């Protein structure tokens, strides 16, 4: 055998170049897509059909079904996507991941692509230094595309030649004589390969190279592709381990959906491979069988494998679409909720870097900011309930406020760490500005939660001291609280919209109303003191409530300004 350890290192290095090229290509595409990608992700909640289209589109842009499914698990965990809504996106991601195989089999094996790839890098390299961000991002994507195919060419050259190293073929052949057992062995090999590379696209490319070089036959390659469909579910299931019950269910659905698909395909594999062979022989330019062992037929077989991959995933979605509700019931039965802690909608370890690319990480972090805004608004409702609802539930309201304020503290810390880590990436100017805006937003949201918590503790002290407000003072506090709640509702609506598209005139009018009411209530306070409407201590508490509520209005304004991209 002429293949040595140094040759093996070259193979690993070639694979590294290929994966690095795919990463640069993916990041460039995501930067080009920008807000449109975020819009695609927001549109994933309509129904299962649009979910499939969303999953397909997101996976085509990110060049990774793993990225899409991990993102879906994260959004389900945050309560921004329901388990039911996630199923369509997961099915679409399975179809989207087949695009890479077509790209590699069409361009990587049928043409001598290296001169074209190098020329592509030469054409777009100067654009890396222009000021136009759009051109710069397109250049990044095209350079990544070029590096990807240079890596593929290196892989093809680094893979040992079967003619000079027949021991490799002999080693593989000893596992091919067990009938269905051999198929299952290579399904397992495909699963492990995807788990090791953490990329179904990379695993599929390796399988295509092995097929093109004659290492494995077409049926064995098809078995490995089936295994890679199972292997791609592993990362999302690992990510869901720290999530809530809904995230775990989304990951389990992905696993069962793919495993069921592999099971029915294994039962029909000989018939299905015959169908693929028929299509390739009758519609490909060379019209060679995918089962032939000649070098020309093996190149043709790479097209057949891409066709098998796409057709299998399309058919799996079509056949199982009607059974999704039953599969959902099965998953819920296998993954029951363990109570309130399990149901809690909040990302637990956002700083763990679930998204493998920066642009999608920003979208994920912004979703977490939306969650934080929602928690903050809930704190305001609890504070209102503390003051003006059944006083028998006072302890319950106090406990809710304290628990939610603690959640905002943790979210601020986790998101801050996460966003800080993103600064290490080569972000676009828009994304860098967006990161800075989010850092300011979470700081102001946490301060709002703190102020409500302080108001609740002050109120608790006032009750313990048995100090009562006159009816007029209670009504004024109530009016002020409702006005601040209106401003919080407007703020949350702005956060949920597109970054930079905030009606600041409406925001400033609301802030002016809060300031005017604060000034008016201060005047009322001094009049009551002069007329003996309440004692000094009650007046101090009243003024404390009014001033803190006005301060909340200031922080709401800050959040809106950050959401508008003004500061």
What does this structure look like?
- There is one protein chain.
- The protein has helices at 5-33, 35-42, 48-62, 65-77, 83-96, 99-108, 114-124, 133-158, 166-173, 180-197, 200-212, 218-231, 234-239, 245-283, 295-320, 324-334, 340-343, 358-388, 394-422, 429-464, 471-496, 504-531, 536-563.
- It is mainly α.
- The chain has two domains: 5-334, no CATH class; 356-563, Phosphate transport system protein phou homolog 2, domain 2 (Methane Monooxygenase Hydroxylase, Chain G, domain 1), CATH 1.20.58.
- The termini are far apart.
Please provide a brief summary of the model.
It contains 23 helices and no strands. By secondary structure, the protein is an all-alpha fold.
Structural key phrases:
about 575 residues, 2 domains, 23 helices, about 80% helix, elongated
Q: What is the secondary structure topology, with strand pairs?
A:
Blueprint: H1 5-33, H2 35-42, H3 48-62, H4 65-77, H5 83-96, H6 99-108, H7 114-124, H8 133-158, H9 166-173, H10 180-197, H11 200-212, H12 218-231, H13 234-239, H14 245-283, H15 295-320, H16 324-334, H17 340-343, H18 358-388, H19 394-422, H20 429-464, H21 471-496, H22 504-531, H23 536-563
Helix pairs in contact: 1-8, 3-4, 3-5, 4-5, 4-14, 5-14, 5-15, 6-11, 6-15, 7-8, 10-11, 10-12, 11-12, 11-15, 12-14, 12-15, 14-15, 14-16, 18-19, 18-20, 18-21, 19-20, 20-23, 21-22, 21-23, 22-23
What sort of overall outline do the alpha carbons produce when their principal axes are compared? Answer: elongated
Number of H- or I-type helical stretches: 23
Question: Can you summarize the main beta sheet?
Answer: none
Helical coverage, percent range: over 70%
Order of helices and strands, N to C? Answer: HHHHHHHHHHHHHHHHHHHHHHH
- Beta-strand share of residues: under 5%
Question: If you average the pLDDT, what whole number results?
Answer: 79
Radius of gyration: 29 Å
Given the helix and strand composition, which structural class is it?
Answer: mainly alpha
Tell me the span between the first and last alpha carbons.
Answer: 65 Å
Low-confidence stretches: 340-346
Number of strands: 0
């Amino acid at each position: 055998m002429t293949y040595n350890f140094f040759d093996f290192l070259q193979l690993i290095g070639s694979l590294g170049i290929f994966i690095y090229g795919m990463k640069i290509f993916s990041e460039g595409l995501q930067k080009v897509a920008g807000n449109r990608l975020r819009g695609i992700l927001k549109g994933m909640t309509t129904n299962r059909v649009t979910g499939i289209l969303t999953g397909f589109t997101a996976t085509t842009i990110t060049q990774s079904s793993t990225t899409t499914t991990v993102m879906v698990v994260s959004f389900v965990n945050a309560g921004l996507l329901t388990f039911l809504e996630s199923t369509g996106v997961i099915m679409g991601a399975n179809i989207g991941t087949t695009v890479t195989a077509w790209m590699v089999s069409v361009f990587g094996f049928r043409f001598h692509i290296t001169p074209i790839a190098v020329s592509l890098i030469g054409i777009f390299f100067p654009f890396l230094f222009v000021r136009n961000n759009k051109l710069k991002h397109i250049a990044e994507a095209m350079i990544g595309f070029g590096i990807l195919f240079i890596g593929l060419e290196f892989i093809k050259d680094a893979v040992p030649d079967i003619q000079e190293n027949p021991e490799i073929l002999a080693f593989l052949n000893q596992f091919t004589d067990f009938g269905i057992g051999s198929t299952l062995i290579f399904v397992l090999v495909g699963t492990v390969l995807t788990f090791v590379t953490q990329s179904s696209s990379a695993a599929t490319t390796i399988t295509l190279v092995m097929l093109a070089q004659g290492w494995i036959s077409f049926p064995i390659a098809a078995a490995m592709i089936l295994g890679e469909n199972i292997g791609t579910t592993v990362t999302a299931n690992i990510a869901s381990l720290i999530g809530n019950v809904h995230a775990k269910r989304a990951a389990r659905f992905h696993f069962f959906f793919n495993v069921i698909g592999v099971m029915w395909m294994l039962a029909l594999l000989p018939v299905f491979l015959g169908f693929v062979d028929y299509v390739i022989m009758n519609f490909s330019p060379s019209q060679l069988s995918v089962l032939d062992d000649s070098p020309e037929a093996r190149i043709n077989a790479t097209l057949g494998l891409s066709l098998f991959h796409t057709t299998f995933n399309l058919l799996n979605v079509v056949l199982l679409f009607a059974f999704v509700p039953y599969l959902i019931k099965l998953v819920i039965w296998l993954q029951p909720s363990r109570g309130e802690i399990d149901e809690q909608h909040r990302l637990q370890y956002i700083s763990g870097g679930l998204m493998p690319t920066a642009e999608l990480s920003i979208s994920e972090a912004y979703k977490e900011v939306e969650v934080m805004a929602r928690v903050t608004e809930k704190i305001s409702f609890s504070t209102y309930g503390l003051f003006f609802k059944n006083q028998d539930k006072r302890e319950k309201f106090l406990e809710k406020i304290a628990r939610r304020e603690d959640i905002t503290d943790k979210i601020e810390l986790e998101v801050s760490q996460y966003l800080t880590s993103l600064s290490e990436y080569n972000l676009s100017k828009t994304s860098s500005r967006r990161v800075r805006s989010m850092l300011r937003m979470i700081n102001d949201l946490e301060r709002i939660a703190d102020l409500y918590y302080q108001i609740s503790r002050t109120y608790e002290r006032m009750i313990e001291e048995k100090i009562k407000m006159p009816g007029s003072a209670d009504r004024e506090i109530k009016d002020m609280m409702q006005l601040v709640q209106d401003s919080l509702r407007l703020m949350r609506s702005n956060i949920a919209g597109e970054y930079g598209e905030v009606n600041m005139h409406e925001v400033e009018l609301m802030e002016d109303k809060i300031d005017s009411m604060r000034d008016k209530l201060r005047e009322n306070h001094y009049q009551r003191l002069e007329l003996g409407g309440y004692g000094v201590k009650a007046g101090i508490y009243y003024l404390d409530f009014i001033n803190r509520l006005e301060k909340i209005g200031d922080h709401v304004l800050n959040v809106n300004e950050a959401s508008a991209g003004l500061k």
